[in-house]
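Entry for the shared binder. Reason: the reviewer on the internal report wants the predicted structure included alongside the sequence.
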Amino acid sequence: MLSELNHTRSTYMYSSLPRKLKMNWRGPFSVPEDHTDEPQQPPRNVNIMTDKRVVRGSTLGQHTFLRANPKQNASRQTEIQRRGRARKRAEEYQSRVRLIVGTPPPVQGRLHMDVQTDDFLEEIFLNPETASTASQTDPFDEVEPPPFIRPPPGVDAATQILPEELFDFEEELKPIVDALVSRTLDQSLLEIMNENQLKVNVTPKKLTQNEAR
């Protein structure tokens, strides 16, 4: 009985070979969910610049994801080649049509005739006669045109005025001369009075100054 108790109380021990942790892409150092010895697969390329499922360009347009479908790719290549051949045939036909000169031949029982359809009759020819002539002209200087002057409205009229009819110099000059003479006399008298007043006021002052010295 004691041996059984000692055996049950003994420590459990387990050891295994060292191994690498399985990387979980949810975190840089995540612990793997299971500890099975499965062969590790190479990490997937998570760069969105090299992911074909990422659509590049404007988000307003409608994009479709490319799928690896060999039948669809083959049918698409066939359609592209068919359209290229049809485009080439159309271009060849257009070039042949451009090379056709003139009108098509007439139907059976009819003939083509040249008819003048212009209002004025003129001779139709391919190579008209030409001649060269020479002439000499003087150099022409470009001159600006004269400015436009509007003619005056109304009717012009004329009249005659005698030399002394509107202004008589002798009569019109008298009041001006009288005003000038009177103004000059007044100014002269005022200056004389000022000089006399200065003499009367300055002389007593000089006498008092001389006495003080």
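Summary line for the report: The two ends are 160 Å apart (CA to CA).
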